[in-house]
């Protein structure tokens, strides 16, 4: 027990003596990525944080020496925001031609939220004596109303789908499910047969953050899903495939 206490005391002493401000920013970003993974965040969310923070580190890079924490304060974060607001959307793309379109305000907000979350973590973990970005505000973005399809437009879409063919019934079921439930496309494509309560009119959906929820469907959607599954859904190429909606070759 005494040996264990001595080791712990020495480790604490080493941590207190460590010049945390000289730690390379990219190394801290790697530590934060490990933290996010251990918290059970989805791979996509982990990648989103890491990519945004790496962009910040690269923005600050000046020469070959690594950027350290002391060089990345609130003023540098504000300069980064100004840079993002002027940045063209496709500047970093090798396949899409350069356009004059700027990054959307919502994209810029995402970068700022990533920075704020990262610096809150740095403070909680003891890398900083205070939250350096506590006073950094998220830039405002215009509030846009989501335009919805009119009843006439919906009927035009559905009239293009042949209810007598496998592809037509599948696509009709997909469109009607999306319209009725508001599912994300990723949520819809990940639905399995076991998620579809065809007799009781509900779908079991795994959403963002691995959060599961029950989504009721209307009677018309319930009927088209039953028609698709019982009469038109093809046999999968592999028995292990359980996706509700299948590609039809």
Automatic annotation (TrEMBL):
**Keyword match DNA-binding:** yes
Give the Gene3D superfamilies listed for this entry: 1.10.150.130, Intergrase catalytic core
Q: Give residue ranges for domain Tyr recombinase.
A: 144-249
UniProt keyword terms in alphabetical order = DNA integration, DNA recombination, DNA-binding
InterPro entries from the UniProt entry: CB (IPR044068), DNA_brk_join_enz (IPR011010), Integrase-like_cat_sf (IPR013762), Integrase_catalytic (IPR002104), Integrase_recombinase_N (IPR010998), Integrase_SAM-like_N (IPR004107), Tyrosine_recombinase_XerCD (IPR050090)
Q: Which Pfam families match?
A: Phage_int_SAM_4, Phage_integrase
Q: Which Gene Ontology terms describe the biological processes this protein takes part in?
A: DNA integration; DNA recombination
**GO molecular function, one example?**
DNA binding
Keyword DNA-binding (UniProt): yes
Stretches assigned to the Core-binding (CB) domain = 23-123
Tell me the first and last residues of the signal peptide: none
What name is this protein filed under?
Tyr recombinase domain-containing protein
